[in-house]
Amino acid sequence: MVTVVLPPHCRRLAGAAGPVPVTLPRGGAGGRVTVGMVLDALEAAYPVLRGLLRDGSGPLRPFIRVFAAGEDLTPAGVAAEVPRSVQEGSEPLRIVGAIAGG
Amino acid sequence: MDEVRLLVGTRKGVFILRGDGAQRRWALDGPAHGGWEAYHVQGDPADPDRLYAALWTAWHGTLIQRSRDGGRTWEPVGNTFAYADGDAVHQGFEGEPQPWRFKRVWHLEPVPAHWGPPGGAGGEAVRGAGGARGSGGAGSGDGGRWFAGVEDAALFRSADGGATWEEVPGLRRHPSTPAWQPGAGGLCLHTILFDPVAPGRLYVAISAAGVFRSEDGGQTWQPANRGLRATYTPEPEPEVGFCVHRIALHPARPQVLFMQKHFGVYRSDDAGRSWQQISGNLPSDFGYPIAVHPEEPDTVYVVPITDDTQHYPPNGELRVWRTRDGGGTWEATGRGLPDRHCYVNVLREAMATVGGDPPGIYVGTTGGQVYGSTDGGETWQALATHLPPVLSVEAQRVR
Question: The whole model's pTM is what?
Fold first, then answer.
């Protein structure tokens, strides 16, 4: 079980008051869990989020950043490995909209 | 009892103004989808309670929301717009080749009933793409047929109420596409106009490519720009390359089209085959929207804006200009509109009309005001004054 902190628009669309729990399918290669796998599970649980965080099943959208355990995972994008502490549920995966707007 | 609904898309969500049939009392609902830029909110004449909203943010891209109850509740539908041909290019601002990339939806238009069923007499090639996106349970297969105009410029269609979208590929097969270049707002297909009589005939307008017409339901297209003057290209009368801001027609006389271009107000009497300038005595021939009175085919409205570097009304005086003779002469209307210190704009999608008793004309401004007139433009009333910048206004009379 992974806990995901969503950006505000997505949280409202998902009907969530706070972080959302996401269950990952078993059997990732070598126990490796990537941002893309978390997004797959997130979109399966909340289909309304499809296309809003990444382009289809491709790269992260511009202005979408992903953080975990104090690390910025964004440079490696959907292929980034999720830290063990997040996989174990002791820390959340944070998806953040870069500051923009007015 | 009649209700007049104004569907107002703004930079920060969707608002609905609900007026009684006489349009004396108005109530404001909203925002729905707070924080999303609502490029367009549109109703379906076949079922006026069915509304669609084209939403966008820089973070999350495009979201299409549908309401089945006149805007009281909403549900997301499909937001995947995949181009049929991934290898084509258009021009960027510097003339450099650019691949086509989907950015956002600018306009949503229901397919009119007289087009008949898919593949029927209208020749329309709408097919059910099948398979819902499954977004929040929003359904496929409820029969709603819609066209969507998008940036980078292309036409999409849905035969399943917006659950899935597929490109109408004929438009971008036109040989002129490598020469299409964006306007300042992007390479956007912003106007979709169905001929209300001739099945299979429709027009689209693209900034800054121009107008295209199809006679076969969208399978093949021809540029419809003859007679337009391009003031910003080396060639004065190219086949494409026109920053058309809006086109409009009256259903009683569909072969007559009116256009507000980047510079120039034009009229066509032959279904877009040729255009003549009718800017006449307007204080400026620059502006964005153009609309025809719902019951008077020769009465047309525009909102002159100073020019393309000063996007506000001449002399800070907001006026809706009206012609009653199809563009021969123009007169300012505006009692009730700001007559000084007004520096707002009225964008291309932000003027609407509604028929009935009384007919109404409405404009929304980038200053967040919505004004309405029920006497043909003689007098105007502020219906909302402190909304976010208004991107679009559509009007419905619901019985």
Answer: 0.93
